[in-house]
Structure formats: C-alpha cells, structure tokens
Amino acid sequence: MNNNSPDGISKDTPAARSALTPSQIADLLARKVVGQRAAVRDLAIALCKRLVRQPSGNLLLIGSSGSGKTTLMRAAEWFLREHTSAPVPLLRIHANVLGRAGEEGRPGEAVLHGLLEAAREQDQGADQDVLLDRACNGIVFVDEVDKIRSVIGTDVHLAGVRAQEALLTLAENESIPMVLPSWLGGEEIRVDSRGLLFVAAGAFEGLYDAVYDRVTIGADRGSLKPITKVVDGEVAEEHPFVLADWLRSEDLFEYGMSPQFLSRFESVTLMDELIEQELVSILLGNDDSPYHRACRYFEQMGYQLVVSPAALGELAHRAAARKRLGARALQEICRRLLKEMEFAPQDHATDGMILLDVDDVKRILDV
Ligand SMILES: Nc1ncnc2c1ncn2[C@@H]1O[C@H](COP(=O)(O)OP(=O)(O)OP(=O)(O)O)[C@@H](O)[C@H]1O
Ligand SMILES: [Mg+2]
Fold first, then answer.
1. What is the pTM of this model?
2. What is the mean pLDDT of residues 22-50?
3. Which CATH architecture has domain 1-272?
4. Which residues pair with 176 in a beta bridge?
5. Parallel, antiparallel, or unpaired for β 139-143 and 197-202?
6. Where are the domains of the chain?
7. Which amino acids bring their CB within 6 angstroms of ligand 1?
8. Closest Cα partner for 135 from 161, 108, 168?
9. Of 82-96, 97-111, 134-148, 301-315, which range is least confident?
C-alpha cells in the first residue's frame, strides 16, 4: 500500500491505525480503571476517533480527588502504547505549565515540543515531516485543569487566565508559530494544531459545595427538594444531591473557567463517587494499592500480611463513607490501621504471619 500523500510526505493511514471499536477500547481501559463507566466510554470514543483521524471534541473530566482521573489518563497511555499498531504521541501536562508557556508568548510550544519528543520516542527512525504530522494529531492530557481558574475567591488569578488563554489558542487556531526543538534544527515554523485532542481533568474542589448551596440556600433555593426520612425514630430531612444532576455551565464560569475556554470542550463528564465494592477492587486489583504496598513491606521484613475479605470490606466501607475522597480515603485508613504493625511487626505476628480480621480493623480504627 502506498501511504504517500501528493506532496510526497509519508502519512499514517487510518486503516493502519485502529481495528478496535470504542467498546473494545473501553474494555481495555477497564482493566486499569475500576468503575467510572461514563468517563471510560467517553474517552474510548475520543481515542477511537483519534486513531482513525476523525474529528473528536475535547473532553473535560470533573471528579473528586481520588476518583481515578489520573488513573484513567495513565490507562489511555498504556492502551496507546500496548494496543495500537500506529504510533499516536501523547503528552500529559500539568495545566500550570501551559500558563508558563503562555507567559513566554509561545503557548503551543510546551505542548508541541512534548508531543514531538513523544513521537520521537515512539519511532526513532521517523523523519521530521512524519514526526510533525504525528505531533499535530497527538493527544494532550491536561491534568489539574482546575488549578488554572481565573479567579480565586474575589481575586483575579493571572496565571490561570494566561493558561486558559494558552489552551484556547492551541485548541482553536489553525496556525501556531513555534520554534522547532534543537534536535529538529531549531527553525521557526507554523503548525496546524486543529488535529490535537485535549482531555482535561480536575477535581474542582469547592464546586460541589457551591452548586449544592445554589440549589438549597442560594439563587435557586428550593430547587432541590428535601426528602423526609425517619432515622432511629426521629424525623429528618435530607437533600439527595448528585452534582451531575445540577451542574450548569454557569457554575463552571463562576468557578473561574471562562466561557470561551469551556466552549472548546464538547463534553463535560462527571466522575462517579466510588462505591464500596469498587474500593475493594482497587485494594485487591491495583498493584500499587495501600494493601499491596503493605504486603510488600511486611514481606521484605520477613512477615506475611493476611487480611480477611471481611476486613477488606470493612476498610472499603469506611473509605466509602468518607465522601468525595475516593480511593485516597483508603490510603489514610490503611495508614492508621497499619501504623503500629509497621513500627514493630514482631509484636503483631504469629508464626511469621500478621493476621487482620474485621474485629481487628474495628478495634484499631475505633480508638
Ligand atoms: N477508578 C479507579 N480505578 C483504579 N484505581 C483508582 C481509581 N480511582 C482511584 N484509584 C487509585 O487511587 C489513587 C488515586 O487515584 P488518581 O490519582 O487517579 O485520582 P485523581 O482523580 O487523579 O485525584 P486528584 O484529583 O487528587 O488528582 C491511584 O493510585 C489509583 O491507584
Ligand atoms: Mg489526579
């Protein structure tokens, strides 16, 4: 097959890129990400479109700390590395870096240099035109995007304003000036950035409370109807609140994301709150979970940590009760649970084994 375009530049053809459908890509991502079906699906569709070089709107993921946003980005990196035949460069960048590049007057450069570097790592033998073509059709994960809000309280956050503008420039302009990295000759050129796919993610701390307040005591008070419950013989009122049901673009404007910036994102996906069973899966399935890390530590010290399924369930139950901390609550709970044992394992071991059942978990954590 001849992959050459009329100008003689070798282009990667879509046919060579993806034989996988979004649902198959989602299944692969789900090997690394527990739950978060909506976000996994949206990202799988965007990745598939990118692989066949069809236009795909940018994605914005909003979810509390520890809900799996960065994990999802890493899963996509793994997918692109291990499961695609044609190289698609990917860059994960902290949103603040965009602001710094914007301040220096070249908002595209940090991103395009990163993508060119990624393209070179994927294919050492590719020539400049191919590397540029791939970089301009690469994927950019902008993590911690909430850190580039344009206001904090009543103060203008100038670095945030600049970073949003930098991203805007990249997402909307056909022609971005850039100086090539020195390993590509350092020449000044213009590149077309319309092929870039942006996936931005952030925890947007405070947004949940702001929207809750709006619909309960603020401008739209009374919109969220309370439900009456009888708890322990007492009548209590509860406001069953799910952010996804109430979030409007205006809430994000008020948070400090400009309307122009937000308009570059075709879809806003809210991450789910992780439930108990999902937290158990994270503890057991993720090699880097607090549970596995503890097992490895004790093994190095010559002990075997054995945690019963009921004890793991109790840990997940307590973590799930800590709202909006996601899997990060597991870390904190496991740290408290294991502190004494890590300090003096010999005092807690029987025949080289440290056994933890549900009663032990309750006893240690309830003090
Ligand atoms: N849905 C998930 N699937 C698998 N592991 C997860 C998931 N959510 C969280 N984790 C685990 O919890 C840890 C924290 O998750 P992650 O870094 O993805 O959170 P985050 O949403 O990016 O949070 P933050 O907003 O604080 O950056 C990770 O080490 C990961 O192993
Ligand atoms: Mg993160």
1. 0.86
2. 94
3. 3-Layer(aba) Sandwich (3.40)
4. 191
5. parallel
6. 1-272, 276-365
7. 33-36, 63, 65-71, 203, 282, 286, 288, 326-328
8. 108
9. 97-111
Mean pLDDT of the chain: 86
> What is the 319 CA–ligand 2 centroid distance (Å)?
18
Which of 75-79, 152-156, 277-281 is predicted least confidently? 152-156
For residue 147, which ligand has an atom nearest its CA? 1
Token duo for residue 232? 């322990």
Mutate-to-test residue for ligand 1 from 60, 62, 67, 205, highest number of ligand atoms within 8 A of CB: 67
Using an 8 Å Cβ cutoff, are 354 and 298 in contact? yes
Distance 202 CA to ligand 2 centre (A): 7
Between the CA of 358 and the centroid of ligand 1 the distance, in Å, is: 25
Question: In angstroms, how far is CA 143 from the centroid of its own chain?
Answer: 7
Determine which of 164-178, 194-208, 290-304 has the lowest per-residue pLDDT on average.
164-178
Task: Locate the ligand 1 atom nearest the alpha carbon of residue 286 and give its number.
Answer: 31
Q: Do domains 1-272 and 276-365 have the same CATH topology?
A: no
Q: Which ligand is nearest to the CA of 142?
A: 2
33 alpha carbon to ligand 1 midpoint, in Å? 9
Q: What is the distance, to the nearest Å, from the Cα of residue 221 to the centroid of all Cα atoms in its chain?
A: 32
Which ligand is closest in space to the CA of residue 202?
1
Q: Which one-letter amino acid corresponds to residue 334? A: C
Amino acid at position 297, single letter:
Y
pLDDT tens across 235-251, in order?
Answer: 887 778 888 888 998 99
119/131 Cα distance (integer angstroms): 6
Q: Atom 27 of ligand 1 has which residue's CA nearest to it?
A: 65
Position 13 confidence tier, pLDDT thresholds 50, 70, 90:
low
Which residue's alpha carbon is at the smallest distance from atom 10 of ligand 1?
A: 68
Backbone angles phi, psi at 48, to 5 degrees: -60, -45
DSSP conformational letter for 37: H
Cα 62 to averaged position of ligand 1 atoms, centre (Å): 13
Q: How far does residue 26's CA lie from ligand 1's centre (Å)?
A: 17
Are 331 and 290 in contact by the 8 Å Cβ rule? The answer is yes
Q: Which fold has domain 276-365?
A: Helicase, Ruva Protein; domain 3 (1.10.8)
pLDDT in tens, 100-109: 776 776 767 8
Question: For residue 285, which ligand has an atom nearest its CA?
Answer: 1
* Both structure tokens of 310: 């009921």
